[in-house]
Amino acid sequence: MGLFILRRTGVMILTALCLTFVVFFMTNLYPNLEKLAKTQGNFRMSDEAVASFLESNGYLQPVAIKYAQWLGVAPGWVREADDGLRGRCVRGTVSAEEMADAPRFCGILQGNWGYSTVFKDDVGSLVSLRLGLTGKLMFFVLILMVPMALIVGVLAGMREGSVTDRSLSTFSIATTATPEYVSGVIFIAVFASSAVGLRWFKGTATAAMENATFENFFLPVLTISLYGMGYIARMTRASMTEVMTAQYIRTARLKGVSFPNIVMKHALRNALIAPFTVIMLQFPWLLNGVVIVETLFNYKGFGWLLVQAAGNNDIELLLAVSVVSVIVVLVTQLISDIGYVFLNPRIRIS
Asked: What are phi and psi of 205, to 5 degrees?
C-alpha cells in the first residue's frame, strides 16, 4: 500500500505540473498580457507603451522562465525603473539596498501566490477566504446530499422493478435533469419571494457568508444537493441491483437469512464500492461547479472568485484558482483509489 501511495503521489505531482503549465501558458498569451497592460494603464496605450509596460513587469520573458519563477524554483526578475528598482519579489519601486535584502525566490513554493490586479490584495489571502466560504457550503451540501442519495439508491435497488424502484428512479432522473439555475430560480420565486407569498426563507446567502442560518443558507444547499443527489442515487441503485442478483445473495436467501440482514450485512458494502468513487468525484465538482449557484444566490465563494478572475483577466488570481482546483481533483482521486482498495480487497495493487 505504501508503494502504491508513493507511486500515485509521484504521478499526481507530475500531472499537477503539466496541468498548471498548460494553464500558465494559456493565461500568458500575448493578447491576455496586452489586455492586462491596457487595464492597468490606459486602453488607448500604443503598442510601444504596452510592450514597455510588459517588459518592465517581467511579462516578456520566455514562458519556461516565467513558469519557474512563478513556481519559485528560479530567481525572480529585477528591472530598473526611473526612481529605483522593480522586481517580482518586492512590491512597487525600491532602492538597491532594499532589493538586496529582498528574497530571490518568491513563488508558490515559498507561499507567494502573487498580487491581484483587480482586488488589490494578496492572492493567497483572497483564495483562502473564498475557499473557506465554499468549503462551508460544500460541507452542508455533502451532509444533505450523500445520505439522501444513498437511501434513495438502496431503497430503489433492493427490489428491482417495484413501485418504489420506479418512483425513486423517476425522482432521481428528474433532479439530475433539472439544472441548478432552473431549480434555484424556482426555489427563490416560491420560497423566498414576496410575490408568491411563501416567505419561508427571509435571509440572503450573502449574509450566510458571515453567519449561516437555516433561513439564509438552506436554499443554496438544497439547490446543489438535489442536482448532485440524482447521479449518486442512480449509481447506487444500479450497483445495488447488480449485487442483489449475485450468487452469494441467493445462497443467503436459501439459508433463510432475513431480507434486512441480507441487505445490511451482505449487499450494502459491496454495493457502495462504485458509489464511493462517484461521491469522491463530487468534491471537485462542488468546488468548481457551484459557480452558477454562488452567482445566483450572490454567495461570494470560490466559484464566484473564479468568475471574477476570468472576467477581469486577473492572471495571478486565475492561476491560483486553477492550482487549487487541480490539487483538489488529484487529491480526491488519490483518496478515491485508496478507499476503493479498502472496500474491495480483491483489487490487486501492482
From this structure: -65, -25
State the Cα torsion 148-150-155-159 to the nearest 10°.
150
- The CA distances from residue 139 to 16, 144, 176, 287, 312, in Å, are 25, 9, 20, 11, 29
pLDDT bucket at 198, cuts 50 / 70 / 90: low
**What is the residue whose three cell numbers read 455533502?**
142
Assigned C-alpha cell, 16: 499537477
Judge if 91 and 197 occupy the same domain: no
Q: Does residue 9 sit in the same domain as residue 101? A: yes
- Comparing CA positions, the residue from 131, 119, 126, 116 lying closest to residue 302 is 131
Per-residue model confidence as pLDDT tens digits over 160-174: 888 988 999 899 889
Of the residues 79, 110, 141, which one is the last residue of a structural domain? Answer: 110
pLDDT tens per residue, range 43-92: 778 888 888 888 888 888 999 999 999 999 999 888 887 778 888 888 87
Number of domains within the chain: 2
